[in-house]
Design a protein that fits this description.
By secondary structure, the protein is α+β, with helices and mostly antiparallel strands. The chain has 2 domains: about 200 residues, UDP-n-acetylglucosamine1-carboxyvinyl-transferase, Chain (Alpha-beta prism), CATH 3.65.10.10; about 210 residues, Alpha-beta prism (UDP-n-acetylglucosamine1-carboxyvinyl-transferase, Chain). Helix content is about 30%, strand content about 25%. It contains 14 helices and 23 strands. A hairpin with a 2-residue loop joins strand 19 and strand 20. Helix 1 packs parallel to helix 2. It starts with a strand and ends in an 11-residue tail after the last strand. About 50% of the residues are buried. Bound molecules: ligand EPZ. Ligand EPZ binds next to helix 1, helix 5, helix 6 and helix 12. The site of ligand EPZ has 26 residues, from helix 1, helix 5, helix 6 and helix 12.
Length: about 425
Amino acid sequence: MRKILINGGNFLYGNVEISGMKNAALPVIYATILANDVCILENIPTVSDVTLSLEILTDMGAKVRRINSTSVEIDTSCLAPVTPSADLVSRIRASTYLLGACLGRFGKAAVPYPGGCDIGPRPLNFHMEAFKKLGADVSNDNGMFTADAPDGLRGSMISLEIPSVGATVNSILAAVFASGTTIIHNAAREPHIIDLAGFLNNCGADIRGAGTNVIKVVGVKSLHGTSYKILPDMIEAGTYMVAAAACGGMVNICSVVPKHLEAISARLIDMGVGVEAGGDRITVTSNGFLKATDIKTGFYPGFPTDMHPQFAVLLAMAKGVSTITDSVFDNRFKYADQLEKMNANVKVSGNTAIFVGCDLKAAPVVAPDLRAGAALVIAGLAADGVTEISNVELIERGYVNIINKLRALGADIVMRVEPDAVATPSVG
Ligand code: EPZ
């Protein structure tokens, strides 16, 4: 069993290098299925969601070669339309993208139910409706999602009820080879969508409007391999910005796109934190004093739901009463019980958490999901005493080298490996 131990209270100073964006790398990894060729992907983060996705492609016959810690070569020319292992697929949400990629390339797809952070219902109805619009027969039973278009896919008008990231990704993947033109209305505008379109257009696709809420995909006959570099991770960057705000000090967040972080920067400035952007760097300066505020998450470019738990730590410490409302996921509040163990005064009512700011105190806590786990790391960095965090695997799903990156900034943090409890043989 591994646990993160943090002796809190240190100010943070120095530079932190941001890795490639997990949620941009994942769609592109599955999109290599459409290339049916060799692709080289750069700035790929070494996080478990990525490792697992590469394992799934290998399981289906792709040839995957790690070139170095941030680059990977993927040859999908031998990948077959087989059903991947449910054990692998059920561990992450991104395996959902197999549906769009396999339906697009092979005209059929059968994928066991995907997994993902337990932050609320994670249905795929918008995805399946999009596939139906493109001419596929879809089903969802016996623990399997299937889509089948024996007569091929036809370009269509897809209007998403909400700008779902996953449904936008899967609509693009399925539309690349569809005959005719597909228009996706109310598309997600996240930078990950821009990266996906950029990669596919480098492979010969014809996708316009990525980053806006209307995306046009003109069907092509085939794609070819390419090399592509993934954008920096805006949520990893935001997490370190919040850590600097919570602990006090001055931290340069390097290799970022400041425009992607505007909503995060604006809220930190509201709370009295210094934020200054320049080139591919953002500098966060804080004396540890935080003003109360009210936050509402929304779809990009609104305040990202993936930054909700991290900001909850700041609201728990800010002088006065603060609230955060999550309009994207219903169950993003599992950090609240854990922060209460650290002396936080937080009450969850519906999809809003209400905080009365106070000083946090170290305690043993359990990471309930990826971003709430990152939030508990931030809380431990700011709290007096030694905080112990278990379920560290959830944090490693989305953060490259978080221990070393924080230690380089002056945090007193280690990973402790404890012998797993040995099952005592029952007597008799
Ligand atoms: C992606 O999840 C991200 N995951 C999530 O990040 C992120 O929180 C989310 O987008 C929103 O930005 C990956 O990219 C792997 P959605 P996704 O479809 O695609 C509802 C992290 O921490 N919905 O935009 O699953 C859904 O329930 C993870 O890195 C339907 O109702 O999110 C949610 O309430 C956590 N039907 C809302 O839409 C559908 O068919 C937004 O979900 C699809 C979604």
